Amino acid sequence: MENVVKFENVNKSFNDFQLNDVCFSVKKGYITGFIGPNGSGKTTTIKLIMSLLKRNSGDLKVFGEETVANSKEIKQRIGFVYAENHFYNHLSVKQMKRLVSSFYDNWDESTFQSYMKYFNLPWKKKIKHLSTGMRMKLSLAIALSHDAELIIMDEPTSGLDPVFRREILDILSEIIQDENKTVFFSTHITTDLEQIADYITFIYNGEIIFDDEKDHILEKYHIIRGAKELLDDDIRQMFIHLRETSVGFEALTDNPQKVRNLMGNDIIMEPASLEEIMVYTVRSGQHA
Ligand SMILES: Nc1ncnc2c1ncn2[C@@H]1O[C@H](COP(=O)(O)OP(=O)(O)OP(=O)(O)O)[C@@H](O)[C@H]1O
Protein backbone atom coordinates (compact mmCIF):
# COMPACT_ATOMS: atom_id res chain seq x y z
CA MET A 1 0.00 0.00 0.00
CA GLU A 2 1.27 3.43 -0.93
CA ASN A 3 1.95 5.89 1.88
CA VAL A 4 1.29 9.57 1.30
CA VAL A 5 2.82 10.54 4.65
CA LYS A 6 5.42 8.52 6.50
CA PHE A 7 6.87 9.32 9.93
CA GLU A 8 9.87 7.28 11.03
CA ASN A 9 11.18 7.82 14.55
CA VAL A 10 10.37 11.51 14.47
CA ASN A 11 11.19 13.54 17.57
CA LYS A 12 10.21 17.10 18.36
CA SER A 13 10.78 18.75 21.73
CA PHE A 14 9.35 21.81 23.37
CA ASN A 15 10.23 22.83 26.93
CA ASP A 16 7.67 20.61 28.58
CA PHE A 17 6.51 18.33 25.77
CA GLN A 18 8.05 15.81 23.44
CA LEU A 19 6.89 13.93 20.37
CA ASN A 20 8.68 10.70 21.03
CA ASP A 21 9.94 8.43 18.21
CA VAL A 22 6.75 8.93 16.26
CA CYS A 23 6.18 6.28 13.57
CA PHE A 24 3.01 6.08 11.50
CA SER A 25 1.79 6.44 7.95
CA VAL A 26 -1.16 7.90 6.09
CA LYS A 27 -2.32 5.55 3.34
CA LYS A 28 -3.14 6.78 -0.13
CA GLY A 29 -6.80 6.69 -1.10
CA TYR A 30 -8.19 6.44 2.42
CA ILE A 31 -9.50 8.56 5.29
CA THR A 32 -7.32 8.43 8.39
CA GLY A 33 -8.62 9.89 11.65
CA PHE A 34 -6.13 11.29 14.14
CA ILE A 35 -7.27 11.06 17.76
CA GLY A 36 -5.83 11.73 21.18
CA PRO A 37 -6.65 13.77 24.29
CA ASN A 38 -5.89 17.51 24.57
CA GLY A 39 -2.21 18.30 24.43
CA SER A 40 -1.20 14.89 23.01
CA GLY A 41 0.65 16.33 20.02
CA LYS A 42 -1.89 16.22 17.17
CA THR A 43 -1.42 19.82 16.03
CA THR A 44 2.34 19.53 16.46
CA THR A 45 2.35 16.42 14.25
CA ILE A 46 0.23 18.18 11.60
CA LYS A 47 2.50 21.24 11.71
CA LEU A 48 5.50 18.98 11.06
CA ILE A 49 3.77 17.57 7.97
CA MET A 50 3.10 21.12 6.78
CA SER A 51 6.71 22.20 7.55
CA LEU A 52 5.36 24.83 9.93
CA LEU A 53 7.69 23.31 12.53
CA LYS A 54 11.07 21.63 12.20
CA ARG A 55 11.63 18.22 13.73
CA ASN A 56 14.65 17.54 15.94
CA SER A 57 15.35 14.13 14.45
CA GLY A 58 13.85 11.27 12.46
CA ASP A 59 12.60 10.88 8.94
CA LEU A 60 9.43 12.47 7.58
CA LYS A 61 8.30 12.08 3.99
CA VAL A 62 5.22 13.46 2.24
CA PHE A 63 4.52 12.11 -1.27
CA GLY A 64 7.83 10.29 -0.87
CA GLU A 65 9.73 13.59 -0.58
CA GLU A 66 11.64 14.95 2.38
CA THR A 67 9.34 17.64 3.85
CA VAL A 68 11.51 20.60 4.75
CA ALA A 69 13.59 20.61 1.56
CA ASN A 70 10.51 20.28 -0.67
CA SER A 71 7.93 22.18 1.36
CA LYS A 72 6.83 24.56 -1.43
CA GLU A 73 6.06 21.78 -3.92
CA ILE A 74 4.47 19.64 -1.22
CA LYS A 75 2.13 22.43 -0.06
CA GLN A 76 0.81 22.84 -3.60
CA ARG A 77 -0.45 19.27 -3.36
CA ILE A 78 -2.07 19.61 0.10
CA GLY A 79 -5.40 21.19 0.99
CA PHE A 80 -4.97 22.36 4.56
CA VAL A 81 -7.87 23.26 6.84
CA TYR A 82 -6.96 24.87 10.15
CA ALA A 83 -9.13 25.03 13.24
CA GLU A 84 -7.98 28.58 13.96
CA ASN A 85 -8.72 31.63 11.86
CA HIS A 86 -5.73 32.02 9.56
CA PHE A 87 -7.31 34.60 7.25
CA TYR A 88 -6.82 38.38 7.26
CA ASN A 89 -9.74 39.83 9.19
CA HIS A 90 -9.88 43.14 7.31
CA LEU A 91 -10.28 41.48 3.88
CA SER A 92 -13.56 40.46 2.27
CA VAL A 93 -14.09 36.83 1.23
CA LYS A 94 -13.48 37.83 -2.39
CA GLN A 95 -10.23 39.65 -1.57
CA MET A 96 -9.05 36.76 0.56
CA LYS A 97 -9.77 34.30 -2.24
CA ARG A 98 -7.84 36.44 -4.71
CA LEU A 99 -4.83 36.44 -2.40
CA VAL A 100 -4.89 32.74 -1.55
CA SER A 101 -5.64 31.52 -5.07
CA SER A 102 -2.50 33.21 -6.39
CA PHE A 103 -0.38 30.75 -4.36
CA TYR A 104 -1.73 27.71 -6.15
CA ASP A 105 -0.64 26.62 -9.64
CA ASN A 106 -3.73 24.44 -10.03
CA TRP A 107 -6.33 26.87 -8.71
CA ASP A 108 -9.75 25.93 -10.11
CA GLU A 109 -12.00 28.98 -9.98
CA SER A 110 -15.15 27.17 -11.08
CA THR A 111 -14.79 24.55 -8.34
CA PHE A 112 -14.31 27.33 -5.79
CA GLN A 113 -17.38 29.16 -7.06
CA SER A 114 -19.48 26.04 -6.82
CA TYR A 115 -18.42 25.50 -3.19
CA MET A 116 -19.19 29.18 -2.46
CA LYS A 117 -22.69 28.53 -3.73
CA TYR A 118 -23.04 25.13 -2.05
CA PHE A 119 -21.89 26.52 1.32
CA ASN A 120 -23.94 29.68 0.83
CA LEU A 121 -20.92 31.91 1.50
CA PRO A 122 -21.13 35.71 1.08
CA TRP A 123 -18.47 37.13 -1.29
CA LYS A 124 -18.60 40.63 0.12
CA LYS A 125 -18.54 39.99 3.85
CA LYS A 126 -15.37 40.79 5.76
CA ILE A 127 -13.58 37.79 7.27
CA LYS A 128 -14.00 39.29 10.75
CA HIS A 129 -17.79 39.21 10.30
CA LEU A 130 -17.95 35.53 9.35
CA SER A 131 -19.20 33.03 11.91
CA THR A 132 -16.97 30.11 12.97
CA GLY A 133 -18.89 27.78 10.68
CA MET A 134 -18.61 30.17 7.72
CA ARG A 135 -14.85 30.54 8.23
CA MET A 136 -14.52 26.77 8.32
CA LYS A 137 -16.56 26.49 5.13
CA LEU A 138 -14.35 29.06 3.42
CA SER A 139 -11.23 27.24 4.56
CA LEU A 140 -12.65 23.97 3.23
CA ALA A 141 -13.74 25.56 -0.08
CA ILE A 142 -10.17 26.82 -0.60
CA ALA A 143 -8.63 23.47 0.38
CA LEU A 144 -10.84 21.69 -2.16
CA SER A 145 -10.27 24.11 -5.05
CA HIS A 146 -6.68 23.47 -6.08
CA ASP A 147 -6.85 19.80 -6.94
CA ALA A 148 -5.06 18.75 -3.74
CA GLU A 149 -4.13 15.07 -3.49
CA LEU A 150 -3.99 15.20 0.31
CA ILE A 151 -6.53 17.00 2.50
CA ILE A 152 -5.24 17.65 6.03
CA MET A 153 -7.55 19.12 8.62
CA ASP A 154 -6.91 20.01 12.22
CA GLU A 155 -10.19 19.58 14.12
CA PRO A 156 -12.35 20.73 11.21
CA THR A 157 -15.65 19.84 12.84
CA SER A 158 -15.08 21.37 16.28
CA GLY A 159 -17.66 24.04 17.08
CA LEU A 160 -19.84 23.15 14.09
CA ASP A 161 -23.49 22.24 14.20
CA PRO A 162 -24.43 18.60 13.45
CA VAL A 163 -25.97 19.49 10.07
CA PHE A 164 -22.80 21.07 8.72
CA ARG A 165 -20.62 18.43 10.38
CA ARG A 166 -22.57 15.80 8.48
CA GLU A 167 -22.06 17.81 5.27
CA ILE A 168 -18.29 17.88 5.80
CA LEU A 169 -18.21 14.15 6.45
CA ASP A 170 -20.19 13.52 3.26
CA ILE A 171 -17.82 15.72 1.27
CA LEU A 172 -14.80 13.86 2.67
CA SER A 173 -16.35 10.49 1.78
CA GLU A 174 -16.99 11.80 -1.74
CA ILE A 175 -13.43 13.07 -2.11
CA ILE A 176 -11.88 9.68 -1.54
CA GLN A 177 -14.07 8.09 -4.20
CA ASP A 178 -11.18 9.33 -6.33
CA GLU A 179 -8.56 6.79 -5.25
CA ASN A 180 -5.75 9.27 -5.77
CA LYS A 181 -7.03 11.49 -2.97
CA THR A 182 -6.30 11.02 0.70
CA VAL A 183 -7.74 12.60 3.85
CA PHE A 184 -6.04 12.96 7.22
CA PHE A 185 -7.85 14.80 10.00
CA SER A 186 -7.68 15.25 13.72
CA THR A 187 -10.84 15.32 15.79
CA HIS A 188 -12.24 14.83 19.26
CA ILE A 189 -15.53 13.63 17.82
CA THR A 190 -14.78 9.92 17.59
CA THR A 191 -18.29 9.05 16.39
CA ASP A 192 -17.49 10.98 13.17
CA LEU A 193 -14.57 8.61 12.63
CA GLU A 194 -16.69 5.56 13.36
CA GLN A 195 -18.81 6.69 10.42
CA ILE A 196 -16.22 7.56 7.81
CA ALA A 197 -12.61 6.69 8.72
CA ASP A 198 -10.74 3.74 7.22
CA TYR A 199 -7.71 4.06 9.49
CA ILE A 200 -7.19 5.49 12.97
CA THR A 201 -3.98 6.90 14.41
CA PHE A 202 -4.08 7.36 18.18
CA ILE A 203 -1.52 9.59 19.88
CA TYR A 204 -1.17 10.04 23.61
CA ASN A 205 1.44 12.06 25.44
CA GLY A 206 3.56 12.45 22.30
CA GLU A 207 3.59 8.72 21.52
CA ILE A 208 1.67 6.77 18.91
CA ILE A 209 -0.44 4.17 20.72
CA PHE A 210 -1.77 2.59 17.54
CA ASP A 211 -2.03 3.20 13.82
CA ASP A 212 -4.35 0.61 12.35
CA GLU A 213 -7.42 -0.14 10.26
CA LYS A 214 -10.57 1.07 12.02
CA ASP A 215 -12.40 -2.22 11.50
CA HIS A 216 -9.47 -4.14 12.95
CA ILE A 217 -9.39 -1.86 16.01
CA LEU A 218 -13.12 -2.20 16.57
CA GLU A 219 -12.92 -5.98 16.23
CA LYS A 220 -10.03 -6.21 18.64
CA TYR A 221 -11.08 -4.00 21.56
CA HIS A 222 -14.00 -5.14 23.70
CA ILE A 223 -15.71 -3.99 26.88
CA ILE A 224 -16.32 -6.72 29.43
CA ARG A 225 -18.84 -6.50 32.26
CA GLY A 226 -19.47 -9.00 35.01
CA ALA A 227 -19.60 -9.81 38.69
CA LYS A 228 -16.57 -9.05 40.85
CA GLU A 229 -16.27 -12.67 42.01
CA LEU A 230 -15.14 -13.60 38.50
CA LEU A 231 -11.94 -11.57 38.80
CA ASP A 232 -8.60 -13.10 39.76
CA ASP A 233 -4.98 -12.02 39.21
CA ASP A 234 -4.59 -13.76 35.81
CA ILE A 235 -7.78 -12.24 34.52
CA ARG A 236 -6.95 -8.75 35.79
CA GLN A 237 -3.73 -8.87 33.76
CA MET A 238 -5.66 -9.26 30.53
CA PHE A 239 -7.37 -5.94 30.93
CA ILE A 240 -6.01 -2.66 29.62
CA HIS A 241 -8.21 -0.91 32.14
CA LEU A 242 -10.42 -2.21 34.93
CA ARG A 243 -13.06 -0.29 36.86
CA GLU A 244 -14.60 -2.02 39.86
CA THR A 245 -17.81 -0.90 41.49
CA SER A 246 -19.56 -2.25 44.57
CA VAL A 247 -21.47 -4.74 42.45
CA GLY A 248 -19.37 -5.59 39.46
CA PHE A 249 -16.64 -4.58 37.06
CA GLU A 250 -16.20 -3.04 33.65
CA ALA A 251 -12.97 -3.55 31.71
CA LEU A 252 -11.32 -2.98 28.35
CA THR A 253 -9.42 -5.78 26.64
CA ASP A 254 -7.62 -6.11 23.33
CA ASN A 255 -7.77 -9.92 23.53
CA PRO A 256 -11.49 -10.79 23.66
CA GLN A 257 -11.02 -14.40 22.62
CA LYS A 258 -8.68 -15.16 25.51
CA VAL A 259 -11.01 -13.43 27.96
CA ARG A 260 -13.95 -15.45 26.65
CA ASN A 261 -11.97 -18.70 26.97
CA LEU A 262 -11.00 -17.92 30.55
CA MET A 263 -14.24 -16.39 31.77
CA GLY A 264 -16.82 -18.35 29.79
CA ASN A 265 -20.36 -17.12 29.37
CA ASP A 266 -20.74 -15.44 32.76
CA ILE A 267 -19.59 -12.13 31.34
CA ILE A 268 -21.15 -9.65 28.97
CA MET A 269 -18.78 -8.74 26.17
CA GLU A 270 -19.39 -6.11 23.52
CA PRO A 271 -17.27 -4.19 21.02
CA ALA A 272 -15.76 -1.01 22.46
CA SER A 273 -16.37 2.37 20.85
CA LEU A 274 -13.39 4.50 19.81
CA GLU A 275 -14.23 6.82 22.70
CA GLU A 276 -14.12 3.95 25.21
CA ILE A 277 -10.82 2.72 23.76
CA MET A 278 -9.33 6.21 24.02
CA VAL A 279 -10.66 7.03 27.50
CA TYR A 280 -9.76 3.69 29.08
CA THR A 281 -6.31 3.55 27.47
CA VAL A 282 -5.56 7.03 28.75
CA ARG A 283 -6.87 6.23 32.24
CA SER A 284 -4.75 3.11 32.45
CA GLY A 285 -1.65 5.01 31.36
CA GLN A 286 -0.82 1.83 29.45
CA HIS A 287 0.09 1.45 25.83
CA ALA A 288 -1.89 -1.03 23.77
N1 LIG B 1 5.33 26.39 19.89
C1 LIG B 1 5.25 25.73 21.06
N2 LIG B 1 6.08 26.00 22.07
C2 LIG B 1 6.03 25.31 23.24
N3 LIG B 1 5.14 24.31 23.50
C3 LIG B 1 4.28 24.01 22.52
C4 LIG B 1 4.27 24.68 21.25
N4 LIG B 1 3.30 24.13 20.48
C5 LIG B 1 2.72 23.17 21.24
N5 LIG B 1 3.30 23.09 22.44
C6 LIG B 1 2.95 22.13 23.52
O1 LIG B 1 2.98 20.83 22.96
C7 LIG B 1 1.96 20.02 23.55
C8 LIG B 1 1.13 19.38 22.45
O2 LIG B 1 0.35 20.40 21.84
P1 LIG B 1 -0.57 20.11 20.56
O3 LIG B 1 -1.23 21.41 20.20
O4 LIG B 1 0.25 19.46 19.51
O5 LIG B 1 -1.64 19.08 21.13
P2 LIG B 1 -3.04 18.60 20.51
O6 LIG B 1 -3.08 17.12 20.63
O7 LIG B 1 -3.24 19.21 19.17
O8 LIG B 1 -4.05 19.24 21.57
P3 LIG B 1 -5.59 19.72 21.43
O9 LIG B 1 -6.42 18.50 21.25
O10 LIG B 1 -5.84 20.38 22.75
O11 LIG B 1 -5.67 20.68 20.27
C9 LIG B 1 1.18 20.92 24.50
O12 LIG B 1 1.68 20.71 25.81
C10 LIG B 1 1.54 22.31 24.03
O13 LIG B 1 1.51 23.24 25.09
Automatic annotation (TrEMBL):
It comes from the Bacteria. Residues 5-230 form the ABC transporter domain. The keyword Transport applies. PROSITE patterns: ABC_TRANSPORTER_2. One of its GO terms (molecular function) is ATP hydrolysis activity. SMART domains: AAA. InterPro entries: AAA+_ATPase (IPR003593), ABC_transporter-like_ATP-bd (IPR003439), ABC_Transporter_VariousFunc (IPR051782), P-loop_NTPase (IPR027417). Keywords: ATP-binding, Nucleotide-binding, Transport. The keyword GTP-binding does not apply. CDD domains: ABC_DR_subfamily_A. PANTHER family: ABC TRANSPORTER ATP-BINDING COMPONENT (PTHR42939:SF3), ABC TRANSPORTER ATP-BINDING PROTEIN ALBC-RELATED (PTHR42939). This is ABC-2 type transport system ATP-binding protein.
